[in-house]
Amino acid sequence: MKFHTEYLVLHTKNRREYLNITHDVAGALKKSGVKEGMVLVAAMHITAGVYINDAENGLIADIDEWLETLAPQERKYRHHLTGEDNGDAHLKNLLIGHEVVIPITEGRLDFGPWQQVYYAEFDGRRDKRVIIKIMGE
Amino acid sequence: MKFHTEYLVLHTKNRREYLNITHDVAGALKKSGVKEGMVLVAAMHITAGVYINDAENGLIADIDEWLETLAPQERKYRHHLTGEDNGDAHLKNLLIGHEVVIPITEGRLDFGPWQQVYYAEFDGRRDKRVIIKIMGE
Amino acid sequence: MKFHTEYLVLHTKNRREYLNITHDVAGALKKSGVKEGMVLVAAMHITAGVYINDAENGLIADIDEWLETLAPQERKYRHHLTGEDNGDAHLKNLLIGHEVVIPITEGRLDFGPWQQVYYAEFDGRRDKRVIIKIMGE
């Protein structure tokens, strides 16, 4: 049984940003030498998520607008009584999802044609981490 | 350590459809011979999801209506500038979730009384795939 | 390869409640003796979820209000024709997510600074179960 762990440090310029990290996940898989198993890719913060979808800029703008409609930044959240201003980022995280698990077959991410792994930052402009944990043989 | 991989090919008649695939997942588990471990069931497309919920037709109609309220098909998405017409399907996928991980205990899916695995198609009428990856002993 | 399985029984006083179960998950991990691997924490019901977020009471009230806005209890759901009154609980479950997978590194839950595991009850006041399945070495 093999295990391989990597931590990505991401620092976005904007409060909200969507970063394609497929290449990083595939790189970690290659280093691990695992041929069969699973990869867990998880945000280590509660104001950022990880999801699988398309690398298409129009869609990414649609996703951002949609998340802002369902969990607006400007709403008065009780969470802001603590001094924070990121209540929306917590809700966006719950909506988009916190982690993904990806199958590994014959040494590669066993994805369909358009699947890409994205890091969704909802409260950026500082260092944040993502863990890649690979488990298999 | 045992690994077992199967691919389901699903082809719905309608654009949106919800298919109970619990029997397929349980069948794959039986073939694998795994007694303890985890099953990953994941859509291989970005306009379809996998979720766990009830096999009740009224609820399934509720889910469909609810998803359509939160991510309507008829909205003008930027993604449609690429020639696609399925922006809503991407957002519905993000909402419902892309994959599930199910515990295996004593050779069976360790589910509570009403849990069933569903494939949620949001842009059907063509062949689409789901991967079942089993890992355990 | 080691496997460890525990079932938590939760019984809330209110219809909706959010319980921090991080301590239970960490306790199960300690008992398992696993140093590297993954923990799956999953609701065994379809009207309750598991998510990772902050242990801050204002935020928890925000989450509850937000879920009630997006999937209101009082709406007339088709599911209620079966005699049930918990259509909203099924939809809230789909939104918040049904399970989480947590990385294990050096014998501990490999979490960032604020990550906590929560059980989200949407139709409580009776015994309900959560499974903790640990897999690793």
**Cα-atom radius of gyration of chain A:** 16 Å
Q: End-to-end distance of chain A, in Å?
A: 5 Å
Q: How much of the polypeptide of chain A forms β-strand, as a percent range? A: 35-45%
Let me know the average pLDDT of chain A. 98
Count of individual beta strands of chain A: 8
> What's the helical proportion of residues of chain A?
25-40%
The number of distinct helices of chain A, counting runs of at least 4 residues, comes to 3
Strand order of the largest sheet of chain A: 1-8-3-5-6
Instruction: Characterize the quaternary organization of these chains.
Output: homotrimer
Largest interface: A-B, 33 and 32 residues
Characterize the overall form of chain A: elongated
What is the H-and-E element order of chain A? EEHEEHHEEEE
Q: Major β-sheet of chain A, in short?
A: 5 strands, antiparallel
Structural class of chain A: alpha+beta
Unreliable runs of chain A: none
SSE arrangement:
The structure is a homotrimer of 137-residue chains.
Chain A: E1 2-10, E2 17-20, H1 22-32, E3 37-43, E4 48-53, H2 57-70, H3 87-96, E5 99-105, E6 108-109, E7 116-121, E8 128-136
